[in-house]
Amino acid sequence: MRRTAADPDTERWLERTAPRASACQQCGECASVCPSQRQGGIRPAEIMARAAVGSLRPDDPALWLCARCMSCSERCPSDADPGEVIASLRERAAERGNLPPYLLDEAERFKKTALCFPRTGMTKKMRKELGLPDGEVSERAVRECGEIIRRTGLGRFVRE
Amino acid sequence: MSKYYLFTGCLIPTRLPFLEASSRFVLDRLGIDHEDLPDAACCVEPIGLRTMAADTWLASAARMLAIAEEGGRDILTLCNGCYMSLKEASHVLEDRAVRARVNEVLRSIGREYRGGTEVRHFPGIIGERENEVRQAVTRPVGLKLVSHPGCHMLRPSGVLGIDRSFRPEVLDRIASWTGAAMVRGEEWPSCCGGGLSGIAEELSSQLLAEPSRHHLASGAEAILTPCPFCFVQFDIKQKGGLPVLHLAELLALAMGAAPERIGMQYHRNKFSL
C-alpha cells in the first residue's frame, strides 16, 4: 500500500463521522464478501487499511463503485462498519468534486421535484390505466425539502 | 392492529406503478388500515444521494417521520431502499442529541420529530399475518420460485430486523402460504447491482450476472423479490435470465386479482401464468 496520499483533513473528517473505522483489524472478511471487489470494483479492506493510517485519497473514483449491499458491515467482526466508512468518504469526495454526474442530476431532481426518479408521460398513462391516483408530489413537500436541502449538506452541490 | 401511512417512494409510483397497484390490492384484501402519507417526498435514496450528504438524508427522513407522528400512524414502505433509509433514520434519531440537532433544521419548516414513529416494511408486516394471508388465498399459485430478498430487506440486519443475511427465510415462508413451491435460494443472497446502475453500468451488469446465473440454475420458473430496484434489474437489464415476480404481485394473484388489473402486462421479461 502506498502512503503517499496522506490527507489529514479527510482523516479528521473520518474521526468525526465514522469513529469505528479504527477498530478494523484487517481480517479481510469485507474483501471476501464484497460483490464489487469480485468484479474488479472497490476494495473495502484496502480502504479500511488506508483509513487506519490516514492515507486516504478523496479523489479515488473507486469510492463510487460500492453498491452499498452492506455485506461488508454485516460480516465485519470488529464492528468497524466499512460500508458506512465508504459512505462517509464519498461525502468528502463529493465536496472535492469527485462525484458521478448521474448523482448530481439526481440531487438536482430531488431539489426540484422532491423525488429522485422523474415522473414522465408514461408514468401518468400507466397510473391512469391502473386506476391509481395521479400521485403528484405536493407543493408543500417540494418547498419543505428545498428548505432542508438549503440548510444541510446537499445544498453545497445543487443550484439555488 | 396498527394503522399505517403507506409510503410508496419514488421508483414504484413513477416507473413501476403496477407494483403499487398490486400492493394496494393486497393491503385492501387483508384489511390492513392504510392511508397515503401526506406531503410525501423521496426517502433520500440510500445508495447514492444519501452518501452525498448524511445530514440532508437524516433531516428529510425525520420530516416524514414527523408527519407520520403527527397523524398518529406508523410508516409502511413498499421499497427496500425506502425501508433502509427511513428505518435507519428512525434508529439514529433515537439518540436525543442527534434528534435535537435535526429538529433545529425541522423548525425552519415548522415541524418537530419526537421519536414516536415505527417504520415497517411490506414483507415484514405480511410475514406476521400467516392466518390472514392463508384465508385470503383463493387461487393458489402453482409456480416454482426462487427468493431474491434484496440487500436492504436484510442488511444491516441489526437495524432492519426482518430476516438474517445467511439463509434468509421470510420470503420463502410467505410464498409457501400462496401455494408456490420454493427452491433453495443463495446462502448469502447476492447484490443485483442496482445501486451501480447509472454510475458504473458495466460493473452493475457484472454484479447482476451472479444472482441471475444462480437463479437460472436453481430450477425455478421465476424470481421472487420484494424490491423494486432488484425488480428492474431482473425485468429489464438481465440478459437471458428468469422472469421476476414482485412479492405483492404473487400475493395479489393468489388472492384472485386479474393479471391485467395489477398490470402484469407491463413486465418486459414476460412469463406465462
Short description:
The complex is a heterodimer of chains A (160) and B (273). In chain A, 52% of the residues lie in helices and 0% in strands.
Instruction: Assign an overall shape of chain B.
Output: globular
User: Which CATH architecture of the largest domain in chain B?
Assistant: 3-Layer(aba) Sandwich
Major sheet description of chain B: 4 strands, parallel
Coarse structural class of chain B: alpha/beta
Structural class, from secondary structure content of chain A? mainly alpha
Oligomer: heterodimer
Architecture overview:
The complex is a heterodimer of chains A (160) and B (273). Chain A is mostly helical. Chain A contains nine helices and no strands. In chain A, α1 (8-17) crosses α6 and α4 (44-53) crosses α6. The relative contact order of chain A is 0.13. Chain B is an alpha/beta fold and 273 residues long. Chain B starts with a strand and ends in a 19-residue tail after the last helix. Chain B folds into two domains: 4-122, Up-down Bundle (Glutathione S-transferase Yfyf (Class Pi), Chain A, domain 2); 139-266, Rossmann fold, CATH 3.40.50. Chain B has helices spanning 11-15, 17-29, 49-52, 54-71, 80-92, 96-107, 122-126, 130-136, 151-154, 157-160, 170-177, 201-217, 228-237, 247-254; strands at 4-7, 34-36, 74-77, 119-121, 144-147, 181-183, 222-225, 244-246. The model of chain B has no long low-confidence stretch (mean pLDDT 97). Classes of the chains: A mainly alpha (160), B alpha/beta (273). Chains A and B meet through α3, α5, α6, α7 and α8 of A and α1, α2, α3, α4 and α9 of B.
